Amino acid sequence: MNDTNDEFAVPTDLATDISRSIGTRSVVLVGMMGAGKSSVGRRLAQALKMPFVDADHEIEVAAGRSIPEIFAEFGEAHFREGESRVIARLLGNGPQVLATGGGAMMNEDTRKLIAEHGVSVWLRADIEVLMKRVRRRSNRPLLKAEDPEAVMRKLLEVRDPFYATADITVESRNVPHGVVVSEIAEKIDAYLNRNVTSGENV
User: N or C: which end of the chain has fewer CB within 10 A?
Assistant: First the structure.
């Protein structure tokens, strides 16, 4: 994705409708590392006039360490426990756009909290797109392996069924950020209106 055509990606009336309908819930972006949750999330938050919060950043602030340092010093299990606590706290601060880490949806309690306090959006991307993006950064603890692509494929196999429980799915691909932001907004609006029409409490 690139920054072309970001501006005015979401019409003002659509953003207003979403803000009115979503109440205190958060828009929660889920998906694999490299799916664009942070970059798209920032622009979506701006378009919807909501705060943007990156769960990984908040974890680092709470721990006083970077995520690679947490993994190196304490291991993944310790990181996941902290991640679950931080996301639970953040979900009480809606409405907001909340970008979660790639493994967040693996925690059953976190999934339940997201379902209760958010509208979840799976940014789904294919392996080629993900690998191209993650190779630009060296701060991915799970990919510090001899064959990072094999690790990514295994993670996708395990995690995709959990991501698929999200309320909305949007394809993350190499198009302008504004295109993806617009698609997310339209699908959120349709989801909220559909559930109101059916009488469900969203």
Answer: C
Instruction: Give the orientation angle of helix 76-90 with respect to helix 108-117, to 10 degrees.
Output: 20
Side chain identity, residue 115: A
* SS3 of residue 6 by DSSP: coil
The number of folded domains in the chain is 1
Q: Enter the pTM of the model.
A: 0.89
pLDDT tens digits for range 9-63: 688 899 999 999 999 999 999 999 999 999 999 999 999 999 999 999 999 999 9
* Residue 70, in any domain of the structure: yes
Please give the Cα distance from 163 to 101 (Å, whole number): 12
Query: In the prediction, which pLDDT does 47 show?
Result: 94
- Domain that includes residue 139, residue range: 12-187
Residue 173 in tokens:
């691909």
Q: Quick one: how many helices (H) and strands (E) in the chain?
A: 9, 5
How far is it, in rounded angstroms, from Cα 95 to Cα 101? 19
Q: What is the mean pLDDT of residues 158-186?
A: 94
- Domain membership flag for residue 31: yes
Which CATH number covers residue 179? 3.40.50.300
Q: Does residue 100 contact residue 89 with C-beta atoms inside 8 Å? A: no
Is residue 7 in a domain?
Answer: no
- Please say whether the beta carbons of 79 and 71 come within 8 A: yes
CA dihedral in degrees (60, 82, 184, 159; nearest 10)? 120
Query: Is residue 1 one of the residues assigned to a domain?
Result: no
